[in-house]
Amino acid sequence: MFAMILLTGATGYIGSHTWVELLNAGHEVIGIDNLCNSSEKLLARVESITNIKPNFIRGDIRNIDVLRKIFQSHNIDCVVHFAALKAVGESVEKPLEYYDNNINGLLQLLRTCNEFSCENFVFSSSATVYHTENNPPYFENMALGPVNPYGWTKMMSEQILRNFEVASLSTRVAYLRYFNPVGAHASGLIGENPLGAPNNLMPYIAQVAVGRRELLSIYGGDWPTVDGTGVRDYIHVVDLAKGHMAAIDYLTQQKKSLTVNLGTGVGTSVLQLVHAFEIASKKKIPYEIVSRRVGDIAVSYANTDLAKKLMGWSAHMGVDQMCQDVWRWQSNNPSGY
């Protein structure tokens, strides 16, 4: 079933890869982004990969007039909502900015969906919603309890959406809790392109390998893990993008909501990821062990059985493939877009 999809945060890292997968699958997509952490140069790359000119609107989803114009001129079947600020550390420093952008943006979007009877909503949530005292692997029914403003915006957004479902009985929501997206498109044309210093591990490793950064700082070498460094569930961004297509199919065919983890179900330590990237890039990654960060935990990885059972989706690419694709992207684009 081909759909008309509104993609918010469309030029971001996950948004752009999902855009490619949706276009290749035959969906019509309207992308919106305010470009606060992305580049319009990406649009030509998406067109090169798909041979389809992206339908893009530069705008902020907090501006309801911009949203209304989109819904008035297009019959939107489904919203895939990525648009959000996402840096954990920055959220601690700028909590009001995060609550305004992430919560207010969602509210304006839902008001517009309600006004124009758009019933299908795919929400970009996060593993940060889980309570840190849960023992991994994380199941969808485990206790929630974020430890930073970014995580709270995701948990609050989930609650707002669940309340909206009750008030609007025809609304269906896919709550997709991501673990750690990495990787890049196999073409090497699009990938993670942080503006400023990277907030996530993989792009930092890649920028050290390509010579943009001198040294990788690893936060804590005394965690109770296989090598003392933190363990996370890294998922290839293309696998993640395909998870969104599976969620759209589920909403439109089953006509009910779902909450699932999107990860691999496998934990990889920081040093294991560094060594895998060294093999992929044939570069030595210099690093130093520094103090733990407040709010960090030792181990986090998903149980993904529910996503497979309900959507028929599972991740297929492992860490080696993730590193190879990131290196192809970074080495071909040492300064990003």
What does this protein look like?
With 337 residues, the protein is α/β, with parallel strands linked by helices. It has a domain of 223 residues: NAD(P)-binding Rossmann-like Domain (Rossmann fold, 3-Layer(aba) Sandwich), CATH 3.40.50.720. It has 11 helices and 14 strands. The strands form 4 sheets. A 7-stranded parallel sheet has the order 3-2-1-4-5-6-11, with helices on both faces. Helix 2 links the parallel strand 2 and strand 3. Helix 3 runs parallel beside helix 5 and helix 9 crosses helix 11. The longest helix is centred in the first third of the chain and has 21 residues. The radius of gyration is 19 Å and the shape is globular.
Task: Give the secondary structure arrangement, pairings included.
Blueprint: E1 4-8, H1 13-24, E2 28-33, H2 42-50, E3 55-58, H3 64-73, E4 78-81, H4 88-93, H5 95-115, E5 120-126, H6 149-167, E6 172-178, E7 180-182, H7 201-209, E8 216-219, E9 231-232, E10 234-236, H8 237-254, E11 258-262, E12 268-269, H9 270-281, E13 287-290, E14 299-300, H10 305-311, H11 319-332
Parallel strand pairs: 1-2, 1-4, 2-3, 4-5, 5-6, 6-11, 7-10, 8-13, 9-14
Antiparallel strand pairs: 9-12
